[in-house]
Amino acid sequence: MPEAKSAPLLRVAHLKVAYPIRSSLLQRQISANVAVSDVTFDINPGETVGLVGESGSGKSTVARAVIGLVKPDDGVIEFEGRNITGYSRKQFKSVRREMQMVFQDPYASLNPRLTVRDLIAEGWRVHRDIVPRDRWTAEAKKLMDRVGLNPDYSDRYPHQFSGGQRQRIGIARALALRPKVIICDEPVSALDVSVQAQVLNLLDDLQEELGLAYLFISHDLSVIEHLCDRVLVLHHGHVVEQGNAREIFERPRHEYTKALLAAVPVVRPWLDQADEGRHPTGEPAA
Amino acid sequence: MTATAPAPAPAVNATMRHARRARRGVTVRIVVPLVVIGLIVVGAIVVPLVYHYDPLHADLLARLKPPGTVTSDGGTAILGTDQIGSDLFAQIMAGARVSLLVGVATLVISGVVGLALGLLAGHFGGWLDAALMRIADVQLAFPSILLAILVASVLGQGVGNIIIVLSISNWVVFARVARSQVLGLKNREYVEAARALGAGNWHLMFRTLLPGCMAPVIVVATTQFAQVILTEASLSFLGVGVPLGTPSLGSTIYNGTQYLSTAWWISTLPGIVLVILMLAFGILGDALRDKFDPRLRSA
User: Fold this and answer.
1) Residues of A in contact with B22 (CB under 8 A)
2) Among A96, A153, A159, beta carbon nearest to B197
3) Among A112, A188, B199, B288, which residue's beta carbon has the most beta carbons within 10 A?
4) If we measure between CA atoms, which residue out of A93, A91, A61 comes closest to residue A75?
5) CATH number of domain containing B90
6) For chain B, how long is the longest CA-to-CA vector?
7) Residue B18, min C-alpha distance to chain A (Å)
8) Number of CB atoms found within 10 A of residue B261's CB
9) Given CB atoms, is B294 within the 8 Å cutoff of chain A?
10) Residue A19 CB coordination number (10 Å)
11) Which residues of chain A from 89 to 108 reach within 8 Å of chain B, CB to CB?
12) Which chain A positions have a beta carbon within 8 Å of B195's beta carbon?
């Protein structure tokens, strides 16, 4: 995507996050489990950066550190040139409205006791100056419409929606604060394949419409390929390869990236002439 | 389009019907106990006034009369009279007044305090949690009746003091239940989502966590209600509860135990009222729990 070269919206440099291991008796820290270390990347306005890796590679930790849910142990996170690494929770509040998150599990990430309208309005309750209270219902309905939900359902509860619809609610909730970056933590991995495409297309449309930037986390390479401009490949908390998405997919350099790409299941391997070794019957491919 | 019976109804309809039936059940289970409790409340307010009930008035000629006896002044003692000859119906209703007042006030005070402290302990964790829970442990190590006797003997008798005493010995239960619920909820993704929206501690505790704590707390409250009324009765029996001139269901029951072989009604009838009251609160609490469950609600 041709973007004007300007200052990056989000800059992460040498990020390191470690989870302490505490002794059971005195809660003293006896060791630490380093989840990610030395992760560096930029996100420009309107750009999508993908984060790939297997389970436990630290993808979600990066996301949680960027949005301030875990404290980084080392490194710098800058948002629009401001160093937000050491921000207190109060200071972070102003950043949060620029940066939102869509969670992995649409069944767990929506409060079951709130209606869709209240779920979407929750951000306005926290940040009072975005939408005046008497406009909440109307604005929430507008957002529902925008993410492809029927606005008449605004009084329903999350359990009355399907997984894909719930994820749309989650996206509407993130959009409600009018952010510039949305962190998508495996937003479609819990969804049916057919619904995945719809949600991805929605994210794509919203990006075009609103000029959003995404930090897109996934273990599904086809999803990353479909959506991302640039890709970081994480392995055991380290970035093993990063660069232009197409380049990485066509010419992976690192062994781990090659292994990841080879692990993508192929629907009809016998049609894949390049890969004779995986022929199901052992016969040479035609 | 033929007029056959609806072919295999879609699953959606089945669940909708199920939800609707469950909701209707909930409504019945809320309305019936409320009516029962309402009748007892109205009776507790009105009956002693109508009967000009005076707990200190003794009429020895009319003592230990069975239910339905016509008294010397021409009235009928529907539920009989007690060991000092006062009308049992009026006494039960006056007693229900005290028991209800003590029960409800204690639940409200200990519930609010316990919930707040439990939320604080669960949400913030750390030393605050440790300190609050150790206090709770220490208190649980004493039998609550012993604690109540101790506090009551310091504060003295009286309905207000009984409420304070019982609140002190009851907040622990609420705090523990609330805390354990918070611990279960606080790592849910939706709590994290609220945090990501920028919600502060206040918002997280009272708008996100509290609603999730309510269901078990309400159930605990209904069982505690029975507990509180019984403890109040025991305290009155031991002489550190409500003062002599104030009848409560508990004190009437205990007074009657001495006459159980000759005048069964003195203990039995207030006992039945007590059981009905507790049952009504129990069912109400259970139904309210279901009503708070969003899965049984729909647009």
Assistant:
1) none
2) A96
3) A188
4) A61
5) 1.10.3720.10
6) 83
7) 14
8) 6
9) yes
10) 13
11) 89-90, 92-93, 96-97, 100-101, 103-105, 108
12) 69
Domain span including residue B243: 22-296
Same domain for A129 and A94: no
Alpha-carbon distance of A150 to A203, in angstroms, equals: 18
Q: Is residue B8 part of a domain?
A: no
Residues 6 or more apart from B105 whose CB is under 8 A from it? B163, B167
Cα A256 to chain centroid distance, Å, stands at 21
Amino acid at B229: I
Out of A108, A153, A173, closest to residue B299 by CB = A153
Spatial CA neighbour of A254 closest among A271, A268, A236, A278: A236
What is the ipTM, given to two decimal places?
0.81
Nearest residue of A to residue B127 by CA position?
Answer: A27
A65 in Cβ contact with A72 (< 8 Å) = yes
Nearest CA of chain A to the CA of B141: how many Å? 23
Please report, for the domain that includes residue A255, its CATH number: 3.40.50.300
3-state helix, strand, coil in chain B (%, to 5): 75, 0, 25
Structure confidence by residue, pLDDT tens digits, A150-173: 999 999 999 899 999 999 999 999
Domain count, chain A: 2
From the list A172, A182, A164, A167, the residue with the least C-alpha distance to A141 is: A172
Put simply, whether A161 touches B (Cβ < 8 Å) is no
Residue B207 contacts A, CB cutoff 8 Å: yes
Measured between alpha carbons, how far is A42 from A47 in angstroms, rounded to an integer? 10
On whether residue B135 sits in a domain, the answer given is: yes
Least confident residue range of A199-203, A207-211, B99-103, B151-155:
B151-155
Is the CB of A160 inside 8 Å of chain B's CB atoms? yes
Domain of A38?
A: 1-98+181-189+213-263
Does residue B12 belong to any structural domain of this protein?
A: no
Q: Would you say the C-alpha torsion A161, A163, A164, A166 has a positive or negative sign? A: positive
Shared domain for A26 and A108, answered yes or no, is no
Tens of pLDDT, residue by residue over B117-160, are 999 999 998 899 999 999 999 988 888 788 878 887 888 878 88
The percent of residues in chain B predicted with pLDDT above 90, rounded, is: 24
Do B197 and A100 lie within an 8 Å CB cutoff? yes
DSSP labels for A219-255? S-HHHHHHH-SEEEEEETTEEEEEEEHHHHHHS--SH
> Does A93 sit within 8 Å of B299, measured CB to CB?
no
pLDDT in tens, A30-54: 788 888 888 999 999 999 999 988 8
B298/A160 CB distance under 8 A: yes
| SS3 state at A216 | strand
Name which residue leads in pLDDT, B7 or B246. B246
DSSP A254: S
Looking at the fold, whether A217 and A240 belong to one and the same domain comes out as yes
